[in-house]
Amino acid sequence: MRIAVTSDIHSNIEALTAVLADAERDAPLDGVWATGDLVGYGADPGPVLAALRARGVTAVAGNHDLAATGGMDTDDFNAQAAAAAHWTAGALSPDEADWIRTLPLVLTVGDFTLVHGSIRDPAWEYLLDARQAEEQFARQTTRYSVVGHSHLPFWFEEDGDGRAWPQRAAAGRRLDLGASRLIINPGSVGQPRDGDARASYVLYDDRAAVLEWRRVAYDIAAAQRKIIDAGLPRFLAERLSVGR
Ligand code: ZN
User: Fold this and answer.
1) Tens digit of pLDDT for each residue in 73-110?
2) Region 29-39: what's the mean pLDDT?
């Protein structure tokens, strides 16, 4: 089974299309996972949802998905994020919004738990440090978990004492799956924030038991033009060039 493990697509159809093409370059995909923030920030929520639903995506909701569909208010969002959430709410069809509302916050699939932030606080917590990783491992009933939200590609590997350290996942990094428990972040498809503007995702091959962090160039200029033409905050277009 080959799975494209994605997060934080953020209504960026150019990035998602490039990621799916990259994942299918060598062999067909058997599935797509998405750990939340399918929409928000970008200008193409409809095409992103259509592409994911056509592939029978396995997804959980993120804070932007909730904010765009009435599941969370935007009081704690910064101004650009709140503006994007309101724009997205107006851009979604009733059917698209209803579909987003069906997404769970935490989902178990095989050996993996999928969640946007953390199991402790699914929509909001930025899981970044060792203590948070230990809290996650204490709640994690599966061997592995996938998180998003920070838009940073990394993993934590639990040692024998239940401790773990964050390790940044460079492009092309391969990780063999063994006995130790992991928390992984595939990075962001639609709005990377680690200084690399290319779309980030993980290709999971269950037969080879390997995870591979991949980076994919995409048509950033096209995504930026649509954001500006839609009247979304200019900053949301500009940041795509620098991956911040
Ligand atoms: Zn996000």
Assistant:
1) 998 899 999 999 999 999 999 999 999 999 999 999 99
2) 98
Which of 229, 176, 236, 180 minimizes the C-alpha distance to 207?
176
| Gap between the Cα atoms of 164 and 240, Å rounded | 31
**Token pair of 230, please?**
């839609």
Distance from residue 39's CA to the centre of ligand 1 (Å): 9
Q: Using an 8 Å Cβ cutoff, are 120 and 135 in contact? A: yes
Which residues, chain by chain, have CB under 5 Å from ion ligand 1?
8, 37
pTM above 0.85, yes or no: yes
What are the tens digits of pLDDT across the range 110-165? Answer: 999 999 999 999 999 999 999 999 999 999 999 999 999 999 999 999 988 878 88
The helix/strand/coil state of 35 is strand
Ligand 1 geometric centre to CA of 224 (Å)? 17
